[in-house]
Amino acid sequence: MTTSEVLTRRCSHEGCGVTPHLVLDDPDGVHAPACFSHAAWLEEDRELARSKGGLRKAAKDRKAPRYLDTHDLGDLETPADAQRWASIIAGATVTGRLSSNAASVALKALQAWLESHEQVALFERLAELEAQMARTITMTKGGRT
Ligand SMILES: [Zn+2]
């Protein structure tokens, strides 16, 4: 193809004023030369280009924060509640309902809640044991006198 041939090339689509160097030839020789937008044999490529743009948009939307509401989770008062929360958070993250950023913060908070809950439970148990011990000592003393 000579330079003058390149310069006189036109898109076969009526009224398309694309610059000559953007005019493409049909590799199968079925269609007249045309630009990327009008080439009949490039329909699939155009579709792919569009869907790639669509995927990029979806990826952008995926980065937007997504949250659960308290209705999804219920109360957090017992370790069983914490277990339910963790499984709901995990499920929501896997299905894309909850963004992974929100999920990791929530799970960290849940971990802290569980640890403090354990400590409270231990303190209560300790107080109970102390009271029991005091009662036993009183009883023993009472038995001796
Ligand atoms: Zn064209």
Walk me through what this model shows.
The chain starts with a helix and ends with a helix. It has helices spanning 3-8, 43-63, 70-73, 79-94, 100-144. The protein has 2 domains: 3-62, no CATH class; 66-144. Helix 4 packs antiparallel against helix 5. It has 145 residues and is mainly alpha-helical. It has 5 helices and no strands. The protein is rod-shaped. Bound molecules: zinc ion.
> What hetero molecules are bound to the protein chains?
zinc ion
Total E-strand runs: 0
Number of helices: 5
The shape is: rod-shaped
- Tally of structural domains: 2
Helix content: 55-70%
Q: What gap, in angstroms, lies between the N and C termini? A: 121 Å
Portion in beta strands: under 5%
The computed structural class is: mainly alpha
What characteristics describe this protein?
145 residues; binds zinc ion; mainly alpha; 63% helix; rod-shaped
Summarize the model shown:
This protein is mainly α. 63% of the residues lie in helices and 0% in strands.
Describe the secondary-structure layout:
Blueprint: H1 3-8, H2 43-63, H3 70-73, H4 79-94, H5 100-144
Helix pairs in contact: 4-5
Bound molecules: zinc ion (ZN).
